[in-house]
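Good day; I would like, with your permission, to put a structural problem before you. A protein sequence and the structure tokens that stand for its backbone fold form the material at issue. The record follows directly beneath this note:
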Amino acid sequence: MALVQALGKPAGLRTFRELADSFMDTVKSHGNLSDRIDVLFDRYEERSIKEGTRVIRSGSVKTVRRIISNTDVKLPDNWKSFIGLDANKANLASFLSEELLKDGCFDGKQVIVS
């Protein structure tokens, strides 16, 4: 999820399909010299020490639940309120994982998604 956090909501992107394309382009560019690309997403469990830290870190940001039901779902206007909710991050990780595995544009590289 560090790459997703670093990318944030790139300017000019409107849908989760466009975000997935941007994410995959970045993954490909970082792995262009490798035979294997590993993509690891965090797990977000409700009852954990990390959850308490995330709640404190998010402060007074009002979070908004957005379900990514297909690639045409519009990106939220306020990325911080979207990414501040663990359910959204888990849904985004699942969506990006599926998109990575069905992309087929990794030029014979082994892609591991976890």
In short: Residues 2-113 form one domain. The first strand starts at residue 36 and ends at 39. The chain is about 45% helix and 5% strand. Strands lie at 36-39, 110-113.
